[in-house]
Amino acid sequence: MPDESQTTCxxxxxxxxxLRLPEALSDHAYDLACFDDRCxxxxxxxxxxxxxxxxxxxxxxxxxxxxxxxxxxxVWSPTALRSSILPxxxxxxxxxxxx
Length: 99
Prior knowledge:
Elements: E1 17-20, E2 30-33, H1 40-53, E3 58-63, E4 70-75, E5 85-86
Antiparallel strand pairs: 1-2, 1-5, 2-3, 3-4
């Protein structure tokens, strides 16, 4: 179960969403990610990616809840990957019974 520091974004304080990962591309079922469109990390990412790489994309804060390792999550639009958000809080993912 992730600790409190892993359930909120360090850049904006928003709660992190549980993001389902494709089974073929990952060795774990989900990451936690910030989907607050006002998050300064996400907002400044659009300019940074355009200036450094000439691409129209950004990134969101993401953390692997098993290891605590944080990394950017590339997005190509404000709605990118939202369909992979699980409607379950991180502390309940993987539980066999409701609390």
